Amino acid sequence: MVSQQRPQIHVFPVLGSRTVCKAQNTGVCLNVNPSRAGGAYGYVDMGGWVGGQAEYVLVPYADFNLLKFPDRDQAMSKIRDLTCLSDILPTGYHGAVMAGVKPGSTVYIAGAGPVGMAAAASARLLGAACTIVGDMNEGRLAHARKVGFEVVDLSKDATLSEQIAAILGTPEVDCAVDCVGFEAHGHGSTGSHEEAPATVLNSLMEITRVAGAIGIPGLYVTDDPGAADAAAKKGALSIRFGLGWAKSHSFFTGQTPVMKYNQNLMQAILWDRLPIADIVNVSVVTLDQAPDGYRQFDGGAPRKFVIDPHGMLKAA
C-alpha cells in the first residue's frame, strides 16, 4: 500500500491595512491614500482628498475614525480644548511618548508653535520634572514661559547646550522632541535664517544623553522642490547619524496614529488634567477670518487658530 503525502503549502502573512489599523498604527493606513502609506486627507501630497478647512467636509471612513464624546453638554463646555484632539494634541503627545518621557524626566521640545506647546503639555501630563521649550520667536517663548515651561532663545549667541546647562546644571536632557521638521532655520543672531532642515535633528543629538530617545513628529517630506540644495529637494538631509549611533540614540518618526491616543486624551481634557486650549492659546475664528488667521500664524503669532464655520463654538 502506497501512502500519498499531501504537498506542503506555506502561507506567508501579508501585512494588510486591516492588520496595520488593528495594531493601532493608523498613521500609516494602506487604504486612504493609494500612492503611499498614510492616514491623512488632503495632507501635503497624500492622495486626492481636498482637505478639511471648509463650511462642510466629507469625512472618509467616518464609521471607523470618529471619536464620540460621552456627554454633549460636558463636551461643549470644553470644546475649545477638544478641537485640539483632531491634530496637534495627539501629534505632540506622540512625540513625547516616543521620546520616552516619564516621571522625573528632563525634556527638550524643539519649537514653540502649537505642536511644540502640545508636546510640552504632554510631557507635563506624563510626569516630566522639567520641560524646556526652544524657539527663535520672542512672542512664542513669552507665551511658553507664561504657561509654566522653561525656555531657551535660539536667536541668542549662546549655544543650545549652554542654555540648557544654565537651567539644569548639565548640558544634556533625558529625551527630546522635534516639533519643527524640515522647515527649521539656522540658530544664533548671526546665523542664516534660510531653511536648514537638518539643524534641529543634529542639535537634538548633541543635547540628548547617551541611550536617550528622540521623538520626531515634526514633518519631513519625501520631496521638497523649494529646498535650497539639491539633496534636500529629494528629502535627503545632512544628518550627523554617526553622532546618534555613537550615543545609542533611538529615533521615532512618522505621522501620528491619532486613534491610539485620542480616547485617553479626551478623558484627560474632560477631567481637567489637560488645559490644552490655554497652553496652545486657542483662538476661535470664523471661516471669513481664516485668511487673516493664516497671515498671523505665518508671522509667528503665539496662538492656534480654530475655524468655527457655523458658530457652534461661539454658541457653546
From TrEMBL:
Ranges for domain Alcohol dehydrogenase-like C-terminal: 114-181
Entry annotated with the keyword NAD: yes
Pfam families: ADH_zinc_N
Name listed for the protein in its UniProt record: Zn-dependent threonine dehydrogenase
Gene Ontology molecular function terms on file: metal ion binding
Superkingdom of origin: Bacteria
Sequence similarity: Belongs to the zinc-containing alcohol dehydrogenase family.
Record field: transmembrane: none
